[in-house]
Amino acid sequence: MGDSPIPEGISSLLDTDLYKLTMQCAVLKYFPDVEVTYGFTNRTPDMKLSRQAYKWLLEQMERLENITITPDEIDFLQKSCPYFNDAYLSYLRNFRLKPSQQLQIKFTPDDSTNDDDTAVGVLEYAVSGLWVETILYEIPLLALTSEAYFKFCDTDWNHNGQEEKAYAKGMTLLEHGCIFSEFGSRRRRDYHTHDLVMKGLCRAAEDAQQKGFPGKFSGTSNVHFAMKYSVAPVGTVAHEWYMGIAAYTNDYENANEMGLRYWLGCFGEGVLGVALTDTFGTPAFLEAFSKPIPDYTTPSRGLEATFPSSAATTEINTPESLADIKPPISAPSHHTPKQAPQKTYAQVFTGIRQDSGDPKNFVKLVREFYDKQGITEKKVIVFSDSLKVDNCLEYKAISEQAGFQPTFGVGTFFTNDFTKLSTNAKSIPLNIVIKIASAGGRPAVKLSDNLGKNTGDKQLVQEVKRRLGYVESVWEDGNEATRWGKKGD
Question: Where is the Nicotinate/nicotinamide phosphoribosyltransferase domain (predicted)?
Answer without folding.
Answer: 180-291, 342-469
